[in-house]
Structure formats: structure tokens, C-alpha cells
Amino acid sequence: MSDSEDSGIFKISADLVPPAVIKPAGISEVDFDGLLSPPLKLHEDLKNGCGGQLWPAGMLLSKYMLRKHRDDLVGKEILELGAGGGLVGLAVALGCKTSTKIHITDQEPMFDLMKRNISLNNLDSKSEATIYDWGTPTPANLPSHPDIILAADCVYFEPAFPLLQETLKDLIGENTVCYFCFKKRRRADLHFMKVAKKLFDVKEIEDDPDKAKYSRESLFLYKITSKSR
Q: Where does S-adenosyl-L-methionine bind (predicted)?
């Protein structure tokens, strides 16, 4: 078979495969099943990475915070890791009582999207976007040991697991509580939690009324604290 014939066969085969559906960029309004009024406006855009859209773990963690921590976050330093467009942090900023700026963080490709969503919801006085690469020193404008860490769908890329673990070790202080939510997509995801349990005190959250439902969808919600707490 000649190279040209071979190329032709593969071209035909590729033509027969339907292209992946890419969600178009646009603004979504999310009220988390009536928990947030007015709803959060979120510009979704995948052009700079998969963090630019809504994911199930982010929806779950947002709903949990709105249900269980709407009134007890005053005076707390709050930081979101791997925020993407800022779903969880901005839901908390919009729907919970807070008194300090919420720091939403991600890598540089998500920076403009985070800032756009802050402005879209008029939350410039209540939240701030920061570029934060896992495994690097904590940026100077962020609290060294925040009271609350929010992390949703941060477990999806296995090579980044050690970097995320290092960042959690940097950030989790004696009084820090990290709410950590993810969807299990592969066996390695649970290995991340196995390592986390050696480093921290890790407890699965049991008081969420949706737990039976989301457990069937391989979603997990944990509270992570320092072993010395």
C-alpha cells in the first residue's frame, strides 16, 4: 500500500467520525435549585481550557456551602483553588455572609475569565482573582493559611496530583478547613485521596441532603483539615 493510499484511507475514516461537540461560549445563570436569588451569572468559555465551563463537583460544592455555611463565614479568609471561571467562590461571595474578599485562583489561562465573571456579578468589592500555579510559592496577596479552602473538580489530571498535594500542604494550617469535591473518573482519582489521608485528616461529609443521589454519580465531598488540628 502506498503512502498516498494509506493517507486516503485514514482521511475517509476520520471523515466518518463525528466531531466532538464543543459547548459554545456564553453566559449561564445558575440559582442552585433555588438557593441563590438573584442567580449567579457565569460566562463559560472553553477556548483556554476545560476549566471554562460548569462541572458537577462545582455545582455540588456550591450548593453545600449555600445550604450549610450561608451565615457562618463572617471574618473567614476564603480561597478557591482551581476555580476555572470562579463558580464556587463567586456563589459563596454572592449568597453567603462574608466580610473579607474571597480569593478565586487558577492558572494564567483562566485569569481573564475569572475577572470577567467577578465583574459580571458586580462582585469586585467581595472577590479577587489571582494566578496561582500549584506547587509554587503562595502568591503574596493570598492568605498563607486561609480559614476556608474551596476545591471542586481539581482531581482530573494525574501528573498534577503531587503539585496539588504540595499546595494543600502549604495552605492548610492548624485552623484551616478545606472543602474538597470531585467526580471519580478513573482509579487514580481515588489514589489521590489515599495519599491525602496520609497527609491530612480527611472525613467524608455526611450531612448533605443530596448525598445519596450524588454518590450514585461517583461524586465525593470531603472535609480536609490538618492532622494536628
A: 55, 82-84, 106, 134, 152
17-to-3, 10, 110, 124 alpha-carbon distances in Å: 21, 11, 30, 45
- The full DSSP string for 181-216 is EEE--SHHHHHHHHHHHHHSEEEE----TTHHHHHT
pLDDT in tens, 36-58: 999 999 987 756 555 446 779 99
What is the CATH classification number for the domain harbouring 64?
3.40.50.150
Tens of pLDDT, residue by residue over 164-214, are 999 999 999 999 999 999 988 777 788 899 999 999 999 999 999 999 999
Domain that holds residue 35: 27-225
Going by the annotation, the residues of the binding site are 55, 82-84, 106, 134, 152
In a domain, 221, yes or no: yes
Alpha-carbon distances of 72 from 16, 22, 25, 201, rounded to whole Å: 55, 39, 35, 22
Give the number of domains in the chain. Answer: 1
